[in-house]
């Protein structure tokens, strides 16, 4: 469907221009948002990777120091001797106190990162779960969640957990190392608990609001800042991680604690196989500037659309007003009547259109008047020609009959025929009138039938049935006789007898006259068969005159009779009560029942 063919031009022009501006602004918003968002993400990820690498180095130094400390403690002779000492309680207590006072306590006090020691051994003297240096039964280790990892390795980092202290529960991460003799015998387990707060201060020293995760080489979370994602989301994050550093735009589907699922993920690891720092930043924080830019463009676009709406409305109205005016003039134009005045103030193409339309209407008016005069003259000439053509035709046939009768009959019959012909000629002339009373037309038919009876004798019979009230109505003269003549000449040809029945009835819309004979009837090809030079002319003349006088639905129809032989002619005429002005002036036809 082409809108330029269906709707008003001003509406199409207005909405098309507004839609184009809106589409252009929308495309610009989307493109600018995409490019600026990607640029901001790339810039932010480069900065975050540099920060993570720096933080990773600091964490590496701190955690490497913890690992080295654990190694020094694990091979410390006083500790190993204490773990293997057997003897009285006092000697073992003295050895433990000296170990704490001279070695372990100074080590804790000198470190900002280490919070406490936990030593699992076979037979500790006492268990204090809130001390900074705790000695715990080795059998307890197998109950801890971290034990399976330690059982398979000599040392391991484990994630955030709570441990007791004199100050209450504290959040720590722990480095666990087995204490073994040179010959490989396990004597205990050493755990160094590192303050989480200390490491978090390192990770947040740039005041970043992003969530940062510290993962070990196996992808397990050791510690975090702000929000801790569940294992399902960590697995989703690791699917995009490749290489020692990089970034990715991720939509995390796993349900978890992250308030936003649309994230920019940046990661960095110091060396292959070591722990990794991951930073999660909500995508909306990265693209906030792009969104503001897009909304700014949307506001500018809305203002542009608003301005374009007024401009387009003004332009479309001024463009389509003369076109609508021209359409109104064309719709209101009626030949012969005064139309609406044409605008004269236009000097452009619209002025040329109005000037051309003015010349066109003037030419149409001239042609209309000329055609009206030609039609009136042609109509009068056709009627007069058709009226005049019937008299020579009838006279020819009548003279032919007179010639035959002169040869075959006596003078008395010729006198009677001439008398009947005189009546017929008087009716045919009828003072120059085209319409005569039905009574005169029926008399004209009877005269013709009587003349034909002289030829056929008693072999010709007829019946005329017409109510008295119809005999005063007017019909075109010489309308019925050609049908009676056609029945005698063609229907009774070669026969010695025949009967003709004429009846007239009044209907709601006019007068219907039927002329039936019992002759041979119509041939099957009578409509397409070439007419005989002496036959069918009168009927065609009547048909054409009725069409010129009245037009549809009035006319003539011919058909074979049903239920018997012969032909039936039907003439349908309007009810006429007075003479009709054929030149189109005074109307004297009773048209109340015309279709």
TrEMBL record:
It is found in: Cell membrane. SMART domains: HAMP. It comes from the Bacteria. Keywords: Cell membrane, Kinase, Membrane, Phosphoprotein, Transferase, Transmembrane, Transmembrane helix. GO terms for molecular function: phosphorelay sensor kinase activity. InterPro entries: Bact_2-comp_sensor_kinase, HAMP_dom, HATPase_C_sf, Sig_transdc_His_kin_internal. The chain crosses the membrane at residues 12-33, 293-315. Residues 317-369 form the HAMP domain. It is a multi-pass membrane protein. Coiled coil: none annotated. GO terms for cellular component: plasma membrane. PANTHER family: SENSOR HISTIDINE KINASE YPDA. This is Histidine kinase.
